[in-house]
Design a protein that fits this description.
about 425 residues, mainly alpha, Growth Hormone, Chain: A, globular
Length: about 425
Protein backbone atom coordinates (compact mmCIF):
# COMPACT_ATOMS: atom_id res chain seq x y z
CA UNK A 1 0.00 0.00 0.00
CA UNK A 2 1.37 3.42 -0.92
CA UNK A 3 1.21 6.00 1.80
CA UNK A 4 1.02 9.26 -0.07
CA UNK A 5 -1.12 10.75 2.67
CA UNK A 6 2.06 11.10 4.76
CA UNK A 7 3.66 13.07 1.93
CA UNK A 8 0.74 15.48 2.22
CA UNK A 9 1.34 15.79 5.96
CA UNK A 10 5.02 16.49 5.24
CA UNK A 11 4.05 19.36 2.94
CA UNK A 12 1.72 20.75 5.61
CA UNK A 13 4.51 20.40 8.17
CA UNK A 14 6.95 22.35 5.99
CA UNK A 15 4.45 25.15 5.50
CA UNK A 16 3.73 25.34 9.23
CA UNK A 17 7.47 25.45 9.95
CA UNK A 18 7.95 28.38 7.57
CA UNK A 19 4.87 30.04 9.06
CA UNK A 20 6.26 29.92 12.59
CA UNK A 21 9.71 31.08 11.55
CA UNK A 22 8.03 34.13 9.99
CA UNK A 23 6.12 34.76 13.20
CA UNK A 24 9.14 34.54 15.50
CA UNK A 25 11.64 36.65 13.58
CA UNK A 26 10.29 39.90 15.02
CA UNK A 27 10.47 38.59 18.60
CA UNK A 28 14.07 37.44 18.11
CA UNK A 29 15.11 40.78 16.61
CA UNK A 30 13.31 42.81 19.30
CA UNK A 31 16.50 43.72 21.26
CA UNK A 32 18.10 44.98 18.03
CA UNK A 33 14.95 46.83 16.98
CA UNK A 34 14.51 48.26 20.49
CA UNK A 35 17.65 50.29 19.89
CA UNK A 36 16.81 51.23 16.30
CA UNK A 37 13.12 52.10 16.82
CA UNK A 38 13.05 53.04 20.50
CA UNK A 39 9.59 51.53 20.99
CA UNK A 40 8.01 50.72 24.35
CA UNK A 41 6.73 47.29 25.42
CA UNK A 42 3.20 48.52 24.77
CA UNK A 43 4.07 49.72 21.26
CA UNK A 44 5.71 46.37 20.54
CA UNK A 45 2.58 44.67 21.85
CA UNK A 46 0.45 46.90 19.62
CA UNK A 47 2.44 45.92 16.52
CA UNK A 48 1.84 42.25 17.35
CA UNK A 49 -1.80 43.02 18.08
CA UNK A 50 -2.12 44.44 14.57
CA UNK A 51 -0.97 41.09 13.21
CA UNK A 52 -3.61 39.34 15.30
CA UNK A 53 -6.38 41.67 14.14
CA UNK A 54 -5.60 40.96 10.49
CA UNK A 55 -5.11 37.28 11.25
CA UNK A 56 -8.52 37.07 12.90
CA UNK A 57 -10.31 38.55 9.89
CA UNK A 58 -8.22 36.55 7.44
CA UNK A 59 -8.75 33.27 9.33
CA UNK A 60 -12.49 33.73 8.96
CA UNK A 61 -12.29 34.80 5.30
CA UNK A 62 -9.95 31.96 4.30
CA UNK A 63 -12.13 29.43 6.12
CA UNK A 64 -15.00 30.43 3.86
CA UNK A 65 -12.79 30.74 0.77
CA UNK A 66 -11.13 27.32 1.14
CA UNK A 67 -14.49 25.59 1.50
CA UNK A 68 -15.42 27.29 -1.80
CA UNK A 69 -12.33 27.10 -4.03
CA UNK A 70 -10.68 24.06 -2.47
CA UNK A 71 -7.60 23.35 -0.40
CA UNK A 72 -5.03 23.48 -3.19
CA UNK A 73 -5.84 26.94 -4.53
CA UNK A 74 -6.80 28.38 -1.15
CA UNK A 75 -3.53 27.39 0.53
CA UNK A 76 -1.45 28.50 -2.45
CA UNK A 77 -3.07 31.94 -2.29
CA UNK A 78 -2.47 32.15 1.45
CA UNK A 79 1.22 31.28 1.40
CA UNK A 80 1.89 33.57 -1.56
CA UNK A 81 0.40 36.48 0.34
CA UNK A 82 2.21 35.79 3.60
CA UNK A 83 5.56 35.15 1.89
CA UNK A 84 5.43 38.51 0.14
CA UNK A 85 4.42 40.17 3.41
CA UNK A 86 7.27 38.47 5.31
CA UNK A 87 9.79 39.73 2.78
CA UNK A 88 8.16 43.17 3.00
CA UNK A 89 9.29 43.51 6.64
CA UNK A 90 12.80 43.94 5.28
CA UNK A 91 11.74 47.10 3.46
CA UNK A 92 10.44 49.09 6.44
CA UNK A 93 12.23 51.00 9.18
CA UNK A 94 9.65 52.59 11.49
CA UNK A 95 7.05 51.52 14.03
CA UNK A 96 4.31 52.42 11.58
CA UNK A 97 6.04 50.44 8.84
CA UNK A 98 6.25 47.35 11.02
CA UNK A 99 2.60 47.74 11.97
CA UNK A 100 1.61 47.75 8.27
CA UNK A 101 3.90 44.78 7.55
CA UNK A 102 2.38 42.79 10.42
CA UNK A 103 -1.11 43.58 9.14
CA UNK A 104 -0.13 42.19 5.74
CA UNK A 105 1.49 39.10 7.27
CA UNK A 106 -1.60 38.36 9.38
CA UNK A 107 -3.82 38.73 6.30
CA UNK A 108 -1.85 36.09 4.42
CA UNK A 109 -1.37 33.60 7.24
CA UNK A 110 -5.08 33.15 7.92
CA UNK A 111 -5.37 30.32 5.39
CA UNK A 112 -2.74 28.03 6.88
CA UNK A 113 -4.64 26.14 9.56
CA UNK A 114 -8.08 25.99 7.88
CA UNK A 115 -6.41 24.43 4.82
CA UNK A 116 -4.32 22.02 6.90
CA UNK A 117 -7.21 20.88 9.10
CA UNK A 118 -9.45 20.35 6.08
CA UNK A 119 -6.70 18.40 4.29
CA UNK A 120 -6.33 16.09 7.29
CA UNK A 121 -10.11 15.54 7.32
CA UNK A 122 -10.01 14.43 3.68
CA UNK A 123 -6.80 12.42 3.74
CA UNK A 124 -7.06 10.48 7.03
CA UNK A 125 -9.55 8.19 8.79
CA UNK A 126 -10.64 9.30 12.30
CA UNK A 127 -8.15 7.20 14.25
CA UNK A 128 -5.19 8.80 12.39
CA UNK A 129 -6.38 12.40 12.37
CA UNK A 130 -4.98 13.50 15.73
CA UNK A 131 -1.58 12.01 14.86
CA UNK A 132 -1.60 13.60 11.40
CA UNK A 133 -2.58 16.94 12.93
CA UNK A 134 0.16 16.67 15.54
CA UNK A 135 2.71 15.96 12.81
CA UNK A 136 1.86 18.96 10.66
CA UNK A 137 1.46 21.12 13.76
CA UNK A 138 4.91 20.04 14.97
CA UNK A 139 6.14 22.68 12.56
CA UNK A 140 4.94 25.14 15.19
CA UNK A 141 7.81 23.80 17.31
CA UNK A 142 10.39 23.13 14.60
CA UNK A 143 10.10 26.70 13.29
CA UNK A 144 10.92 28.23 16.71
CA UNK A 145 13.78 25.71 17.10
CA UNK A 146 15.36 26.75 13.80
CA UNK A 147 14.69 30.46 14.11
CA UNK A 148 16.79 31.20 17.26
CA UNK A 149 19.74 29.43 15.64
CA UNK A 150 19.46 30.92 12.15
CA UNK A 151 18.00 34.40 12.63
CA UNK A 152 20.74 35.88 14.92
CA UNK A 153 23.44 34.54 12.58
CA UNK A 154 21.69 35.92 9.49
CA UNK A 155 21.13 39.29 11.19
CA UNK A 156 24.76 39.47 12.32
CA UNK A 157 26.05 38.49 8.87
CA UNK A 158 23.76 40.35 6.48
CA UNK A 159 21.63 42.57 8.71
CA UNK A 160 18.17 42.10 10.22
CA UNK A 161 16.41 42.86 6.94
CA UNK A 162 17.92 39.75 5.33
CA UNK A 163 16.19 37.50 7.88
CA UNK A 164 12.76 38.67 6.70
CA UNK A 165 13.67 38.51 3.01
CA UNK A 166 14.95 34.93 3.24
CA UNK A 167 11.84 33.82 5.13
CA UNK A 168 9.67 35.20 2.34
CA UNK A 169 11.69 33.36 -0.29
CA UNK A 170 11.30 30.08 1.63
CA UNK A 171 7.51 30.36 1.44
CA UNK A 172 7.56 30.99 -2.30
CA UNK A 173 9.85 27.98 -2.79
CA UNK A 174 7.31 25.80 -0.97
CA UNK A 175 4.78 26.55 -3.73
CA UNK A 176 7.00 24.68 -6.19
CA UNK A 177 6.24 21.50 -4.21
CA UNK A 178 2.62 22.15 -3.28
CA UNK A 179 1.12 22.95 -6.68
CA UNK A 180 2.25 19.79 -8.53
CA UNK A 181 1.83 17.39 -5.59
CA UNK A 182 -1.49 18.25 -3.94
CA UNK A 183 -4.87 17.01 -5.18
CA UNK A 184 -7.87 15.53 -3.33
CA UNK A 185 -7.20 11.83 -2.61
CA UNK A 186 -9.88 10.71 -5.09
CA UNK A 187 -8.18 12.71 -7.89
CA UNK A 188 -4.54 12.09 -7.06
CA UNK A 189 -2.69 9.76 -9.46
CA UNK A 190 -0.29 8.93 -6.62
CA UNK A 191 -2.97 7.29 -4.42
CA UNK A 192 -3.55 3.58 -4.94
CA UNK A 193 -7.00 1.98 -4.58
CA UNK A 194 -5.75 0.29 -1.40
CA UNK A 195 -4.70 3.57 0.17
CA UNK A 196 -7.94 5.25 -0.86
CA UNK A 197 -9.88 2.44 0.81
CA UNK A 198 -7.75 2.91 3.94
CA UNK A 199 -8.44 6.65 3.96
CA UNK A 200 -12.18 5.95 3.81
CA UNK A 201 -11.98 3.17 6.41
CA UNK A 202 -13.90 3.96 9.57
CA UNK A 203 -14.88 7.35 8.28
CA UNK A 204 -17.75 9.01 10.07
CA UNK A 205 -20.41 8.00 7.57
CA UNK A 206 -23.22 9.90 9.25
CA UNK A 207 -21.24 13.11 9.33
CA UNK A 208 -20.01 12.62 5.78
CA UNK A 209 -23.61 12.31 4.59
CA UNK A 210 -24.48 15.72 5.99
CA UNK A 211 -24.07 18.45 3.38
CA UNK A 212 -21.90 21.44 4.11
CA UNK A 213 -23.69 23.85 6.43
CA UNK A 214 -24.26 27.47 5.55
CA UNK A 215 -21.83 29.75 7.31
CA UNK A 216 -24.51 31.51 9.34
CA UNK A 217 -26.14 28.20 10.31
CA UNK A 218 -22.93 27.08 12.03
CA UNK A 219 -23.54 29.62 14.80
CA UNK A 220 -26.73 27.80 15.75
CA UNK A 221 -24.78 24.86 17.15
CA UNK A 222 -23.47 24.68 20.72
CA UNK A 223 -20.45 22.81 19.37
CA UNK A 224 -19.47 25.85 17.31
CA UNK A 225 -19.59 28.09 20.38
CA UNK A 226 -17.65 25.52 22.41
CA UNK A 227 -14.86 25.70 19.83
CA UNK A 228 -15.03 29.50 19.60
CA UNK A 229 -14.65 30.02 23.35
CA UNK A 230 -11.98 27.33 23.69
CA UNK A 231 -9.85 29.01 21.03
CA UNK A 232 -10.42 32.46 22.56
CA UNK A 233 -9.15 31.28 25.95
CA UNK A 234 -6.15 29.20 24.84
CA UNK A 235 -4.72 30.56 21.57
CA UNK A 236 -3.45 33.77 23.24
CA UNK A 237 -1.29 31.65 25.55
CA UNK A 238 0.59 30.16 22.60
CA UNK A 239 1.10 33.65 21.19
CA UNK A 240 2.36 34.84 24.57
CA UNK A 241 5.21 32.32 24.50
CA UNK A 242 6.06 33.06 20.87
CA UNK A 243 6.04 36.84 21.24
CA UNK A 244 7.45 37.37 24.73
CA UNK A 245 9.82 34.48 25.56
CA UNK A 246 12.97 36.12 24.10
CA UNK A 247 12.14 39.29 26.02
CA UNK A 248 11.44 37.27 29.19
CA UNK A 249 14.93 35.75 29.13
CA UNK A 250 16.46 39.15 28.33
CA UNK A 251 14.63 41.15 31.00
CA UNK A 252 14.41 38.66 33.89
CA UNK A 253 17.40 36.36 33.33
CA UNK A 254 19.83 38.85 31.77
CA UNK A 255 20.37 36.91 28.51
CA UNK A 256 20.77 38.62 25.16
CA UNK A 257 19.68 36.92 21.95
CA UNK A 258 22.99 35.06 21.59
CA UNK A 259 22.85 33.74 25.15
CA UNK A 260 19.17 32.77 25.19
CA UNK A 261 19.03 30.68 22.02
CA UNK A 262 19.96 27.38 23.79
CA UNK A 263 17.06 27.91 26.19
CA UNK A 264 14.60 28.71 23.39
CA UNK A 265 15.75 25.74 21.31
CA UNK A 266 15.43 23.42 24.32
CA UNK A 267 11.93 24.69 25.10
CA UNK A 268 10.68 24.07 21.58
CA UNK A 269 12.60 20.80 21.33
CA UNK A 270 10.83 19.50 24.43
CA UNK A 271 7.54 20.76 23.06
CA UNK A 272 8.15 19.01 19.74
CA UNK A 273 8.86 15.62 21.32
CA UNK A 274 6.01 15.70 23.82
CA UNK A 275 3.36 17.30 21.60
CA UNK A 276 3.70 14.64 18.89
CA UNK A 277 3.17 11.92 21.49
CA UNK A 278 0.14 13.84 22.71
CA UNK A 279 -1.35 13.82 19.22
CA UNK A 280 -0.78 10.07 19.08
CA UNK A 281 -2.47 9.42 22.43
CA UNK A 282 -6.15 9.91 21.62
CA UNK A 283 -5.79 7.87 18.41
CA UNK A 284 -4.17 5.10 20.41
CA UNK A 285 -7.04 5.10 22.91
CA UNK A 286 -9.56 4.90 20.05
CA UNK A 287 -7.69 1.94 18.55
CA UNK A 288 -7.93 0.27 21.99
CA UNK A 289 -11.71 0.45 21.83
CA UNK A 290 -12.40 3.77 23.57
CA UNK A 291 -15.15 5.91 22.10
CA UNK A 292 -13.97 8.97 20.16
CA UNK A 293 -15.54 11.38 22.64
CA UNK A 294 -14.10 9.69 25.72
CA UNK A 295 -10.62 9.44 24.17
CA UNK A 296 -10.52 13.08 23.06
CA UNK A 297 -11.84 14.48 26.36
CA UNK A 298 -9.50 12.38 28.50
CA UNK A 299 -6.46 13.57 26.60
CA UNK A 300 -7.65 17.20 26.61
CA UNK A 301 -8.00 17.14 30.40
CA UNK A 302 -4.54 15.62 30.76
CA UNK A 303 -3.00 18.33 28.58
CA UNK A 304 -4.79 21.09 30.54
CA UNK A 305 -3.32 19.77 33.79
CA UNK A 306 0.18 19.69 32.27
CA UNK A 307 0.13 23.48 31.78
CA UNK A 308 -0.51 24.28 35.46
CA UNK A 309 3.10 23.85 36.75
CA UNK A 310 4.32 26.73 34.53
CA UNK A 311 3.01 28.93 37.35
CA UNK A 312 6.28 28.22 39.21
CA UNK A 313 8.68 28.95 36.31
CA UNK A 314 9.58 32.53 37.36
CA UNK A 315 10.67 31.39 40.82
CA UNK A 316 13.08 28.55 39.97
CA UNK A 317 16.41 28.11 38.22
CA UNK A 318 16.59 28.95 34.54
CA UNK A 319 16.86 25.35 33.29
CA UNK A 320 14.06 24.18 35.57
CA UNK A 321 11.97 27.03 34.15
CA UNK A 322 12.91 25.90 30.64
CA UNK A 323 11.56 22.42 31.45
CA UNK A 324 8.23 23.76 32.76
CA UNK A 325 7.77 26.17 29.84
CA UNK A 326 8.62 23.35 27.41
CA UNK A 327 6.01 21.13 29.07
CA UNK A 328 3.41 23.91 28.89
CA UNK A 329 4.11 24.52 25.21
CA UNK A 330 3.97 20.79 24.46
CA UNK A 331 0.63 20.56 26.27
CA UNK A 332 -0.70 23.49 24.24
CA UNK A 333 0.25 21.93 20.91
CA UNK A 334 -1.09 18.51 21.93
CA UNK A 335 -4.30 20.25 23.06
CA UNK A 336 -4.56 22.17 19.79
CA UNK A 337 -3.98 19.15 17.54
CA UNK A 338 -6.57 17.14 19.47
CA UNK A 339 -9.08 19.91 18.84
CA UNK A 340 -8.21 19.92 15.14
CA UNK A 341 -9.26 16.26 15.13
CA UNK A 342 -12.42 17.11 17.11
CA UNK A 343 -13.48 19.56 14.39
CA UNK A 344 -13.13 16.77 11.82
CA UNK A 345 -14.99 14.34 14.11
CA UNK A 346 -17.98 16.60 14.72
CA UNK A 347 -18.63 18.77 11.66
CA UNK A 348 -19.34 17.83 8.02
CA UNK A 349 -16.18 17.76 5.94
CA UNK A 350 -17.44 20.50 3.66
CA UNK A 351 -17.74 22.82 6.65
CA UNK A 352 -14.45 21.96 8.36
CA UNK A 353 -12.48 24.90 6.95
CA UNK A 354 -15.29 27.31 7.84
CA UNK A 355 -15.36 26.06 11.44
CA UNK A 356 -11.57 26.23 11.61
CA UNK A 357 -11.77 29.79 10.32
CA UNK A 358 -14.40 30.81 12.87
CA UNK A 359 -12.43 29.26 15.72
CA UNK A 360 -9.18 30.73 14.46
CA UNK A 361 -10.77 34.17 14.27
CA UNK A 362 -11.83 33.83 17.90
CA UNK A 363 -8.36 32.72 18.97
CA UNK A 364 -6.81 35.60 17.07
CA UNK A 365 -9.14 38.10 18.73
CA UNK A 366 -7.88 36.83 22.08
CA UNK A 367 -4.36 36.96 20.69
CA UNK A 368 -4.96 40.55 19.58
CA UNK A 369 -5.99 41.68 23.06
CA UNK A 370 -3.47 39.74 25.11
CA UNK A 371 -0.19 41.22 23.70
CA UNK A 372 -1.44 44.76 24.40
CA UNK A 373 -2.42 43.71 27.92
CA UNK A 374 0.97 42.05 28.42
CA UNK A 375 2.78 45.16 27.23
CA UNK A 376 0.76 47.31 29.61
CA UNK A 377 1.47 44.96 32.54
CA UNK A 378 5.21 44.94 31.82
CA UNK A 379 5.47 48.72 31.35
CA UNK A 380 3.48 49.26 34.57
CA UNK A 381 5.58 46.74 36.51
CA UNK A 382 8.82 48.50 35.62
CA UNK A 383 8.10 51.07 38.32
CA UNK A 384 6.81 48.63 40.94
CA UNK A 385 8.54 46.28 43.43
CA UNK A 386 9.95 43.28 41.59
CA UNK A 387 9.96 45.13 38.26
CA UNK A 388 9.30 43.22 35.06
CA UNK A 389 10.12 39.94 36.83
CA UNK A 390 6.96 40.41 38.91
CA UNK A 391 5.05 41.35 35.77
CA UNK A 392 6.08 38.16 34.03
CA UNK A 393 5.21 36.12 37.14
CA UNK A 394 1.67 37.52 36.99
CA UNK A 395 1.37 36.68 33.28
CA UNK A 396 2.68 33.15 33.82
CA UNK A 397 0.01 32.67 36.49
CA UNK A 398 -2.71 33.66 34.00
CA UNK A 399 -1.34 31.20 31.45
CA UNK A 400 -1.24 28.32 33.92
CA UNK A 401 -5.00 28.12 34.48
CA UNK A 402 -6.33 29.02 31.03
CA UNK A 403 -6.64 25.45 29.74
CA UNK A 404 -8.53 24.05 32.72
CA UNK A 405 -10.98 26.94 32.40
CA UNK A 406 -11.32 26.26 28.67
CA UNK A 407 -11.89 22.54 29.28
CA UNK A 408 -14.76 23.27 31.68
CA UNK A 409 -16.36 25.78 29.29
CA UNK A 410 -16.05 23.40 26.35
CA UNK A 411 -17.46 20.45 28.28
CA UNK A 412 -20.48 22.44 29.44
CA UNK A 413 -21.32 23.44 25.87
CA UNK A 414 -20.32 20.18 24.17
CA UNK A 415 -20.59 17.22 26.59
CA UNK A 416 -19.84 14.74 23.78
CA UNK A 417 -17.91 14.88 20.50
CA UNK A 418 -20.32 13.15 18.14
CA UNK A 419 -20.89 13.81 14.41
CA UNK A 420 -23.75 16.25 13.85
CA UNK A 421 -25.30 13.83 11.37
CA UNK A 422 -25.53 11.12 14.03
CA UNK A 423 -27.93 13.10 16.26
Amino acid sequence: MTRFRWVIVTLLFLATTINYIDRQILALLKPMLDQELGWTNQQYGLVNSAFQAAYAASYLAFGWLIDGVGIKIGYALSITMWSLAAAGHGLVGSIRGFLVARLALGTGEGGSFPASIKAVAYWFPPRERALAASLFNSGANVGPILAPVAVPWIAATWGWRAAFLLAGLAGLAWLALWLPLYDPPEDSPRVSPAELAHIRQGNDVAAAAVPGLEWRALFGYRETWAYILTKFLTDPISWFWLIWLPDYFHKTRGFDIKASWPHLVTIYGLSLLLSVSGGWLSGRLISKGWGVSRARKTTLFLFAVCVVPVLFAPYITVWAAVALIGLALAAHHAWATTFYAVVSDVFPKRSVAAIAGIGGMSGSLGGMLFPVFCGWVLDWSQHRPGGETAGYAFLFALCSGAYLLAFVVNHLLSPTFEPLGAR
